[in-house]
């Protein structure tokens, strides 16, 4: 058991794995980009205008701008989770793509690193898509400050991919992912300040919220959109890094146990 | 030093020893067959030789590399055709080969240079841009074989390469494998088609319950393990016939409604049967399948 939990070995051999996923994505790029962009954008604009008319100001900003900063994070998280779970599981379990790769001179560490970096890239695209809407609609104060949102998106991609890969590693089938989405992702969306400020929640839910990674991402992105430097950056960054790296380490150990038995 | 060797190989899953102390040596340029019923440990043995799982005991050398310690290095010159096709369903024939070549660190230019040869070898040149889903089972197997050759391997592992194929497709694969042997490649294949093993393999090993129970060239195994002639008899009055022919048949085996008579005197057995109307018979030379069934038994394994 212990031998499966050796530290990850990092190597540039992950690149052909990344390129393989990119080649598949390229073939289906138009519907993929539309999905990344359109779905969260409709939610954001619908709720932003609909509720925005009733709520002139939330958390010191226009509701649409408030929601936009939440949506950047929400969309990044969703994209990373879906890619690492549904698409990752197809490649690992259904199509046996990983097994085919393991017959070549690559190791499972290379494959999983390729998946991690690929998924981060894909979620970056989802986060960026919303950021482009933010720029287009002028929902920001300082353009330069919003550029700092990009590294936060990357950090979120790492965090939520690491977490999702753990679920992937232990999943017997696609249905199993419902547990993760229902018990982890949906509560995060509702507790971490995507749609309304966390201070609106009762005290004990605020305490729960403080432990969830999405809260820390939003607490960086929202001030950046308002042209402010977020408070407690180090703390927020460390929380996202911790979830991501502990998740990735556990995921790698469990996946090794699953495939290299 | 041999091309591929294993000593005292062991692998245990739960309480069960799936590979229970195997020694094997494969020489350069030969076709080596690993035979056995389902669950005999063939696929696990292949996985061990590829370094995809750690043995509980034993030493493995593949192309002068210790495995699993240097398995990745060993696999640079190894090709693998897995039991179940795992081609990329989103890719065309060509893209499958390109993506796979990259895993070996080949540049796109190198792969592009190799593509026509690979497509021609697999007789898929006319399908280069076809989607995988449109290929027949035989074409998919040929593509999987071409994919295994993308790195120009010295040693090729094939896990049940023709399972599920129709006879035409099977003969085509055999012909391709013989072409590879003629090029000097070394092949290790698992199969439970005795005909396949007999046609292709220079040497083979029969495995059961994780152990080697026989080893040698196909002809030699037949000669040393079994009588040269088999007469299969069926029809009315089977038991009476069996009682009367105990002398001529060195071994007599009843399976369902058929008696298998293993003998050195085929003609003496069949002559009295010629005029019979109730009993029918089939006389044939003993095959590897007879050896296999003798050694592993006729019980179902699933």
Instruction: Describe the global form of chain A.
Output: globular
Instruction: Note the run of SSEs of chain B as H and E.
Output: EEEHEEHEHHHEHEHEEHEHEEHEH
Order of strands across the main sheet of chain B: 6-7-8-3-9-10
Strand content of chain A: under 5%
Largest interface: A-B, 24 and 27 residues
Radius of gyration of chain B: 22 Å
Helix run count of chain B: 11
Main beta sheet of chain A: none
- Could you tell me the strand content of chain B as a percent range? 25-35%
Short description:
The complex is a heterodimer of chains A (261) and B (302). Chain A has 261 residues and is an all-alpha fold.
Provide structural commentary.
The complex is a heterodimer of chains A (261) and B (302). In chain A, helix 5 crosses helix 7 and helix 7 (149-170) runs antiparallel to helix 10. Chain A has helices at 15-27, 29-54, 63-94, 97-102, 108-137, 143-147, 149-170, 177-191, 203-210, 213-225, 233-259. Chain A is built from 11 helices and no strands. Chain A is globular. Chain A has 261 residues and is mainly alpha-helical. Chain B has 302 residues and is an alpha/beta fold. Chain B is built from 11 helices and 14 strands. The longest helix of chain B is centred in the middle third of the chain and has 16 residues, at 167-182. The interface between A and B is medium-sized, with 24 and 27 residues.
Q: Could you list some keywords that capture this structure?
A:
heterodimer, A: 261 residues, mainly alpha, B: 302 residues, alpha/beta, Rossmann fold, Alpha-Beta Plaits, 6-stranded mixed beta sheet, 4-stranded antiparallel beta sheet, 14 strands
